Amino acid sequence: MTVIAKKASLLFVPWIGMLLLTGCLPGSSKNAGLSSSLSATGTAGATTMASSSPQDTESTASLLNGSVRAILAQPDGKTVLGGDFHPPNHVARLNSDGSMDAEFEQNIGFAFNAPVHALALDADGGILAGGDFSDFSGMFASRIVRLNPDGTLDNDFRMNLGQGFNDKVSSIAVQGDGKILVAGNFTEFNGVAAVRIARLNEDGTLDSSYGAPAASHVPPDTTPPAAPRSGK
User: Fold this and answer.
1) Residue pLDDT, tens place only, 59-80
2) Spacing of C-alpha 2 from chain mean position
3) Domain spans of the chain, in order of start
4) How many angstroms separate the CA atoms of 97 and 144, rounded?
5) Which string of b and e fits 15-48 if b means at least 16 CB within 10 Å?
6) What are the DSSP calls for 91-154, one per residue?
7) Are 5 and 67 within 8 A, CB to CB?
8) For the purposes of burial, counting CB atoms within 10 Å of the CB of 209, is it exposed (0-12), middle (13-18) or buried (19 or more)?
9) Contact predicate 195/203, CB 8 Å
10) Are 36 and 23 in contact (CB under 8 A)?
11) 3 state SS of 187
12) What is the pLDDT of residues 87-139, one digit of tens each?
């Protein structure tokens, strides 16, 4: 059986040699989410993809009942998904065989109260998630959180965010120095102007140096003073 996903995203994961495909299954009132593993072989420009068995695809698809908007492939072969589906509420992790990571599902509790649009992995294996949400498992969390590798909430990071962002986070990228670039529809972070893009420190506080205007350099006035006027 061939399954074509709407709004599909394709991600190559080099450390497991697999392509991950996500999207929305057509012909379903619930837009069932699809996450399928594909093996990639051949040279660049001539890649062939052999899908997992139809049974595996259908089994994985049945785990989610909404669209997948973000994919995060972990080095251990597990895959974090974010999107509109629930339950689990807008975030899930699959094992390398496509089955649900039961420990992660237990640790996220009620998870998010609105869709997840962005996922990123930090150097310590923490999972950064951004989206439309304002709550994570009963805790205030405005549009961005950091989850520990096991799926529990990093509460120190949450507290450092303060009021967080005032509108949707749609993209997250972690720099080599650990700082976190965030983009979206927001205009403020914790009451401070941050129009559509901001950078956070590793602990979740705002990097106030990002986007700050460079200090203007005014050269010293070297004009010699005027000679005093002689009296009459």
Assistant:
1) 444 467 888 999 999 999 999 9
2) 30
3) 6-200
4) 29
5) ebebbbbbbbbeeeeebbbbbbbbeeeeeeeeee
6) EEEE-TTS-B-HHHHHHTTT-BSS-EEEEEE-TTS-EEEEES-SEETTEE--SEEEE-TTS-B-
7) no
8) exposed
9) no
10) no
11) coil
12) 889 999 999 988 899 999 999 999 999 999 999 999 999 999 999 999 999 99
What would the two tokens of residue 177 be? 């120095």
| Cα separation, 204 vs 158, whole angstroms | 7
Question: Would you call 54 helix, strand, or coil by DSSP?
Answer: helix
Residues 74, 126 contacting (CB under 8 angstroms): no
Alpha carbon distance 22, 157 (integer Å): 29
Q: Which helix (H) or strand (E) holds 161?
A: helix 155-161
More confident site: 33 or 48: 33
pTM of the predicted model as reported, rounded to 2 decimal places: 0.72
* pLDDT tens digits, one per residue of 2-38: 334 445 555 544 444 444 555 554 444 344 444 333 3
